[in-house]
Design goal:
CATH topology of the largest domain: Rossmann fold
Largest sheet: 5 strands, antiparallel
Strand order of the largest sheet: 2-1-3-4-5
Number of helices: 4
Structural class: alpha+beta
CATH superfamily of the largest domain: P-loop containing nucleotide triphosphate hydrolases
CATH architecture of the largest domain: 3-Layer(aba) Sandwich
Helix content: 10-25%
Length: about 150
């Protein structure tokens, strides 16, 4: 069995608002293997976006551990435990290799589907032909190849 590229172990995210405590994510563990595609579904306010934001520490968990490509980004055994976290500069470098699309993602209306997908790759080190191939692969994955040259309004 291969090593997961994303490991979330016993993730909790708790928010404190005035006298209220909100458990947005409670004891979630998931291993994601290379090539896997996941969708996280649930009611509004169920913690889906919060959980996804934990992967690259856009949201720091209250407890649990986050490991990406074998590197621990965050670890805390409990709310009171000492937390270890990847450094800010190192995290910034790692985030450049993680692509995420959130529920309220906005497409650029003046760009085609292909151009919108390619937009996320503009700062990558891929050569132009590699970017083109990656865009084609991604459009095929989500069954949008036939709409590659259309605009979001179409």
């Amino acid at each position: 069995m291969t090593e997961p590229i994303i490991e979330l172990k016993n993730i909790d995210v708790t928010f404190h608002q005035k006298k209220r405590t909100i458990e947005a994510v409670k004891n979630v563990s998931i291993d994601i293997e290379r090539g896997d595609v996941y969708g996280i579904v649930g009611y509004s306010g169920a913690g889906k976006s919060t959980l996804v934001r934990v992967i690259n520490l856009l949201q720091e968990p209250t407890s649990g551990s986050v490991t990406v490509n074998g590197e621990t980004f965050f670890q805390a055994d409990s709310q009171d435990a000492k937390k270890t976290r990847i450094g800010t500069n190192d995290l910034r470098v790692r985030r450049r290799k993680i692509g995420m699309i959130f529920q309220h993602f906005n497409l650029l209306n003046e760009r085609t589907v292909t151009e919108n997908v390619a937009f996320a790759l503009q700062h990558s080190k891929l050569k132009d032909d590699e970017k083109k191939a990656k865009v084609a692969e991604l459009l095929e994955l989500v069954d949008l190849s036939d709409r590659a040259e259309q605009y979001p309004s179409q």
